Amino acid sequence: MATLPLNNWSVASIRQTSGISLEEIARNTKLKVTTLKAIEDANFDVLPGGIYNISYIRQYARAIGADEGALVKMYRALSQDDNQSQAEDRR
User: Hey, how many other C-beta atoms are within 10 angstroms of the C-beta on 78?
Assistant: First the structure.
């Protein structure tokens, strides 16, 4: 399984190195290509949120052969950073 450094959300490069297309992942996971692209772009605001995001990221990780736990951990760290930034913007 591929692993990622925790400070770098570069899941698209893992997918591309593996030679897997977004369309192939979409067929296998039943997730929309736009959802998969949002995951690759770390554009989590367009996803439904909560446990759905975790599930989508786990499915994506399995599809590209990445460590599910590592991606979820990174997602949570990125989401926490986004939440803190949004809270600071509201002040």
Answer: 15
Beta-bridge partner residues of 66: 2
The overall average pLDDT reported for the chain is 85
> For 27-38, how does the pLDDT look when each residue is reduced to its tens digit (9 = 90+)?
999 999 999 999
8's tokens? 């770098």
Rounded to two decimals, the pTM is 0.79
Domains of the chain: 11-85 (1.10.260.40)
Q: Which residue has tokens 């909560």? A: 50
Do 16 and 30 form a contact (C-beta atoms < 8 A)?
no
The CA distance from 79 to 87, in Å, is 12
The 3-state DSSP class for residue 2 equals: strand
Question: With b meaning 16 or more CB within 10 Å and e meaning fewer, what string describes 15-31?
Answer: beeeeeebeebbeebeb
